[in-house]
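Let us work through a complete example step by step.
Step 1: write down the sequence.
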Amino acid sequence: MRERLVAAFVGLTVVVVALFGVPRAYMVADMVRGQEQSKVDRVADLAEVVVEQQVAGGRPVTVDGLNRLTAAGEQVSVEVDGRSVVSTDFGQAARADDLVATRRLTGGGTLSVRRSAAAVGDQVAQALLSVVLLGLGLVLASGVVGFVLARRLARPFQELATAAEGLGSGQLEPRLPRYAVPEAQAIRDALVTSGSRISRARERDRELAVHASHELRTPLTALRLDLEDLALWPETPATVAAELRRSVGDLDRLGTAIGDVLDFSARRSRDDESEVDLARLVTDEVRRATTAGGPPVTCETPGLVLVRADRGVLAELVGLMVANARRGAVAVAVHVEHRGPHLEVRTVAQLTESVSGFVAQGDPAWSRASALAITLGARLTRGAVPGEAVLRLPGTRDGDLS
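Step 2: predict the structure and record it as tokens.
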């Protein structure tokens, strides 16, 4: 885009310079020729006076006398008393486009002054040089100004292109400044609005999956176990036990239907997944947490670690793990490790209290993190020691996607 803007700006300048310079060049050339013709006329007038005085005084007209009246590129010729005298400083053949001035002498005869067309052309070229240099200077200046303006005009659209690409990789909340260019501002508003809508839609899908998982599967499992226990009680009549076992089958079919809905939601979530460098994402989240102040956080990664996941969801989940691990901690260490076919993000907090960052099963932070893990097809568990949380993701080794 910048190259096209510079080319358009320079091209417009060239057109303007040409529209101004070409007529100006003809005007300058005509003006120089007019000045040279006036000079030839003045030389002719002077030579006329000198020659007439010589003739009136009875002195002959000589070549040396005529040479003293001429300058470079000029020739004076006199025809008097049937004799022709020509100056010898001209040094070139006469041309049809030479400037000529002719005078008739009082005592009879003719005087002619010739100005070489080559000398006139040199004067015209010298006068046009300033016009040409001015035009070239304007073109060069327009190139510099066009480059600067193109960078300023193109920068918003480059930022918008980066933000639009980020939408496809899960970065749904681009941080874009306001722009003075109305078109860029309109695109910026559209990107922000679209990202917010997509984010809300994904959030609703995640909430549906979490609700179905926690609010449907768990009660159904508990009810199934209760019905099986009732069917096995000795006090339960055989007909009632048979009815209970039939109800267990109905519950299984309902559980299968719920599983299908959750699988469909998971497949939709996977459609939004992209290739993510887990190590870099975790490092960025640790750096963001460190700049906010609080307990120090260190990070250990094995290098490039690629996973397929929703970048926005994964970043929120890792950030939530780090933030909660810092609660009541002296220091926090974050590790990204390969565990067979899986990848693990492990947060380990050095605690000042006897509880971890995720303090209880009903803790909202733990529930939120668990819900995000479910939407990623991952598993979030507490570690073997207090202050430890483990996120297990399906991953690859050596940076190759499985």
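Step 3: interpret the result. The helical segments are 2-56, 63-68, 117-168, 182-232, 238-271, 278-291, 311-325, 364-375.
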